[in-house]
Amino acid sequence: MSRRRIPETWAIIGVSLLMVMALGLLARGLVRNTDRAAQLGDLAVSRAMDSQHTMLDLLLKTYAWDIQQEAAYLTGGDSTSEKDLQERWLAVLRSRFAINSIGVADDRGNGSLLQHEDSIWRFSLTRMDTVPASCIVRQWSMRGQAYGVDTLHPAVGTDPRKAPWFSQALEARQDGPVWTLGSDTASRTMHLSMLLRGGERKANYQVVHFDVDPDAMFAGASQWGKEVSSIMLTSSGTPLTLLDTSVVGRAWAKALASWRPFERSDDVKITLGEHSFVARMAPYDLNGIRLFSGVMVGFGPIEHWNDEGRTALWWVSGLLLLLGILLVTVYLQSRNAEMRVQRQTRRSTIQARNLAQVTDEREVLDREVHHRVKNNLQVVSSLLNLQAERVPLAEAQKEFIRGKRRIDSMALVHHKLYRQKDLAHVDLGIFLNDLATALAAMYAPESRGVSHTVDSAGVKMDADTSIQLGMITCELLANCHQHAFPYSTGGHIDIIVRDVGEGNFTLSVKDNGKGSAGAANNRAALGLEIVEALSEQLDGKVRMVEGEGTTMEVTFRSIGR
User: Fold this and answer.
1) Range(s) of the domain holding residue 129
2) Residue after which a domain boundary falls, among 164, 184, 212
């Protein structure tokens, strides 16, 4: 096993262990999922009870704040005439639909009361300190239509000091609003009263009170639905709100039938057909009385959520098993693929070694060919040199010498080429600089004062194109050495190669000598004819520019491209 394979194996083993642990945890979750419904039900009931008590606290505090406002008004020293009380209490009753009446009574039994029944407003002014006691009542409709003015109703003038709310306010250990349940269980009325000391009536004390309808008061705080519902009960277990005949109402009736106040009991579980519920009752203490708050939660959504969770656990377990199977399959496939890659790598290595060997052999053969061509050209050059010595005419002897030099140039091109490291990508900068240096040595000592520079911009060519460019460069440099610098002052030659795009290149040979116009005007000159012929082989052309010296520009294309 390779070193690279060892970390992958340990990674797969680690993932497999993690998957086994995950499957174990899922199995444990599935086993304990049966108790989760009961836990969720208990949690839902506890949260519903907390929410119910929070809403009750906020609701009852608003009524306590209202009666405290009335107490502050009655003891504040402002005018509390019949008209003022009537207008103020009308605003309170219209804003608080749960309040059926507002009244105030003093220690002598005198009091004022504003109440509404159905669509009638009734304002009563009771005087118990007169003989005989009197009660003056004024009635009008909610639209403002008067039914009677200063009508005497002796039967209404009962003594308010005998009411439970009056004595409850007096017996309160601390000043503040006190709650009292009405004695008539059928009406389900709650009284909120508060003891006042002093006031403009100059009585020893007064008691202000609200008569509150529990159905209307708890309508906003009680929740009623299939999932969560709530109810308010008296200390004896009597509902303060009406129960309907729906499934939830019948479930409440069944739960209350088995519940006993002031006895410790667990949550009550009820089943009606296919519906199941759990109910809980808890005491809720007010200043003056104790009530019970009950909440009921339907088990249908909880069981649905629990089933969804169980289903999700099974799905996750199945997916983990499938993932394990896929992991094993991928592992086996990766092993097979790695073995195939290793075999292919070995074959590729062998092929690359063989190819490198063949390439090296070809390089050696190419270099040997160029070396033999150079040697053969040198033999031809020596033969021409011997032939020139036997020619009696001086002009003919010069032509032999010129031919010998061209052959020497061709030999020089092959010599410099096979010395390159890479024959497939010949660096023209190095190649042309070696040619220029060697060619200058051929024209010594006249060329000692002539310098040169080569700028190829990193352009590289194949061997065939490089041979043609080398021969063109040799002809152009020979023309410069023979015609551009006739004097001993010397000069300079620039050799420039540029890639002009779209597969085209330029070779420029520029001298700063006197120019070679004489040779250029003679179209039969052999050197320029050779340059033009070699340029045509490269799909190029030759252009000469004269000015401060002479510039020969050859445009060409690479043979190997």
Assistant:
1) 99-212
2) 212
